[in-house]
Amino acid sequence: MAKSPSYSCSACGSSFTKWSGRCDGCGEWNTISEDTGLSVGPGANSLGSKRGTGIALSDLRTEEAPPPRTAAKMPELDRVLGGGLVPASAILVGGDPGIGKSTLLLQAAAQFARSGLKTIYVSGEEASAQVRMRAQRLGLADAPVQLAADTNLRNILTTLEAEAPGLAIIDSIQTMWLDTVDSAPGSVSQVRAAAHELTTFAKRKGVSVVLVGHVTKEGQIAGPRVVEHMVDTVLYFEGERGHQFRILRAVKNRFGPAEEIGVFEMTGAGLAEVTNPSALFLSERGTPSPGSVVFAGIEGTRPVLCELQALVAPTPHSQPRRTVVGWDGGRLAMILAVLEARCGIPFAGLDVYLNVAGGMKISEPAADLAVAAALLSAREDSALPADTVVFGEISLSGALRPAPQTENRLKEAQKLGFASAIAPKGGKAYGSQGMTLNLMSDLTGFVGEVFGA
Ligand code: TYD
Ligand code: MG
């Protein structure tokens, strides 16, 4: 019986039985193409020849110590990995082209190799000589890293089998191809098959693999999302092109906390680690001005302070603009609606712009109150005191909900010279960490107290 064709989306990996112009899974256009998967030979539906044995969970020996992690001695990277590299783990590092993935991983490869972990860096995009040139520029030419330039996955697996490294970096998964898969490198089937081969190889041979994946919207090349579920850890390297800051974020981690971030700065000599991101994100802040508010946030396990900037101006258009950089547009619409419905402060006829300074992206709901404060401060043209931080979640009723890890937020703020905080009342009683606390239970109270409206 002929196999009916199947189709999959190169952005999100969803499968379909027929082609369409738009993916129902992720809403992207022109990303669906025919899936020429692995051939299905005779006996495809018969049982396997070997019988496995089950082990009772309680029979697993617990006294065996977990295998030690290897630290790269790059604290920002080690933290995102959950305290170093776990042996035989598979890691995906995704990011826009040109954001600095190859630079980061070459630096990491050098560090791991110097820590005694045998490391191979396989480049499918650059010749070994080019990688060496880059390493020279980064001052890593003497690091004991092995380089290979290949795109044929079978050859790469043979090399890895023979060399038996502790860590293999594959840059990038989209350039790899398997001869058993009948489609172009970068297609969904190739990327999925190559990632599958590499991750199973990692588990079988005890080699950690790092797969580099470009995030792309064109649909020509499969996005890293099609391999996310196959790996143990998914890291995204993000940042704005115009800014020198780069953030490595753990979006999935079987061996550590998710949402942990590492902060780097792109310099002429590669990526430099930023050990105190709050100081950096606030370094561009000038004199207190209307619309500017400092949010005391938490990223993963670490407090990070950053500046929110809002601009509110009468609109010349019939539809006022709502523009957000670094935060969620839907959440901004919600805050505007709550301000209007619960506090009677309309934003109709006003353009609203919101920006998180420094190219940082925030996803915490605890930023709600800081956003509301920035919007009100811009609208009323009145600046908040320069030494105040703000945090707290706003509910649709206009009530303020306490944010997690309050003490950490306050401690960080105090360390950076802030004297007071505006935060929600209630929740776990928290110590003031030596700061003046201005605790509020609802948004109306906040508006009245802070802006006298
Ligand atoms: P790269 O690591 O090649 O990005 P990716 O692998 O994610 O595509 O980084 C490319 C950019 O980084 C390029 O625009 C130049 C910049 N860069 C520096 O600013 N300093 C450096 O030392 C290096 C190596 C790159
Ligand atoms: Mg690259």
UniProtKB/TrEMBL annotation:
In the record's own words, the domains note is: The middle region has homology to RecA with ATPase motifs including the RadA KNRFG motif, while the C-terminus is homologous to Lon protease.
Q: Which UniProt keywords apply?
A: ATP-binding, DNA damage, DNA repair, DNA-binding, Hydrolase, Metal-binding, Nucleotide-binding, Stress response, Zinc, Zinc-finger
Domain RecA family profile positions: 66-215
Q: Name one Pfam family in it.
A: Zn_ribbon_LapB
Q: Enumerate the residue ranges of region (Lon-protease-like).
A: 351-453
* Protein's name in the database: DNA repair protein RadA
**Function (record text):** DNA-dependent ATPase involved in processing of recombination intermediates, plays a role in repairing DNA breaks. Stimulates the branch migration of RecA-mediated strand transfer reactions, allowing the 3' invading strand to extend heteroduplex DNA faster. Binds ssDNA in the presence of ADP but not other nucleotides, has ATPase activity that is stimulated by ssDNA and various branched DNA structures, but inhibited by SSB. Does not have RecA's homology-searching function.
Enumerate the InterPro entries for this protein: AAA+_ATPase, DNA_repair_RadA, P-loop_NTPase, RecA_ATP-bd, Ribosomal_Su5_D2-typ_SF, Ribsml_uS5_D2-typ_fold_subgr, Rubredoxin_2
UniProt binding sites for ATP: G95, D96, P97, G98, I99, G100, K101, S102
Q: Does the keyword Nucleotide-binding apply?
A: yes
Show where the record puts the motif RadA KNRFG motif: 252-256
UniProt gene name: radA
Q: Which CDD domains match?
A: RadA_SMS_N
Membership in a protein family:
Belongs to the RecA family. RadA subfamily.
Please indicate if the UniProt record lists ATP-binding as a keyword.
Answer: yes
